[in-house]
Amino acid sequence: MPQKQWIVGPAGELPVDADGQPVASYSDQPAQPHPKVRRVSAEEVRALTGRAQRCFDPESLKVVAHLTNEENLQFDPLSGLPLQAHPTRAGVRRTAEGAMVFPRIDPAVIGRVQLADSNYILLGRNAQRSEYFSLIAGYVDLGETFEQAFAREVLEESGRRLTQVQYLRSQPWPFSSSIMVGMHAITEDEDPIRSTDGELLETRWLSPDELRRGVVPLPAEGSIAHALIQEWCL
């Protein structure tokens, strides 16, 4: 009898019905070590309902993380030799000598930039994801703290300097083997004080009222970017 499975597309998307609820499929194909989930092509995901979206509930994120890790961590990064699954530690691999190789997780920072003495925050439209506005984000460099990384990314992408950088929350982001670290900071720079790296097509200062009225499209519900923006609107 075919087994009921959730299928996950290459970007972590699930087929959903008109109400946005995930739709399962049936398959005879085994999916190890997650018998209820398998990764397939984007075409197969959309073939079920014609609709698909990323799913952000914790269990789905964990499954996507394991599937991504299994695909990416097949060889020892030092020797190039094949790795074997660890018998008791999910996600961990072992070399032929028994040494453990842990999953790669790339930390990235994302956060709100508030204009000093105001209730405006800065949102940007990324050149690679130009259909919506989001918070400024980027990967942490070697030797950086989260606070330093966020200040550098904001300066590079928006040309603004930060003070009072604070950690808020985090969210696993297995679509790129990352963990997103949410921040909040203050800037005195209403306008850029230097040239930017061109990653953002535009930036805008937006108030809670404007965000609630939907004057710009926002990131998908369930993402840390969406959560941090919505919290600002409360």
From TrEMBL:
Gene Ontology annotations of biological process type: NAD+ catabolic process; NADP+ catabolic process
GO cellular component, one term: cytosol
Catalytic activity entry: a 5'-end NAD(+)-phospho-ribonucleoside in mRNA + H2O = a 5'-end phospho-adenosine-phospho-ribonucleoside in mRNA + beta-nicotinamide D-ribonucleotide + 2 H(+)
Cofactor(s) needed by this chain: Mg(2+); Zn(2+)
CDD domains: NUDIX_NADH_pyrophosphatase_Nudt13
Keywords associated with the record: Hydrolase, Magnesium, Metal-binding, NAD
GO molecular function, one term: NADH pyrophosphatase activity
Listed Gene3D superfamilies: Nucleoside Triphosphate Pyrophosphohydrolase
Name of the protein in its database record: NAD(+) diphosphatase
Organism: Corynebacterium pelargi
Encoding gene, per UniProt annotation: nudC
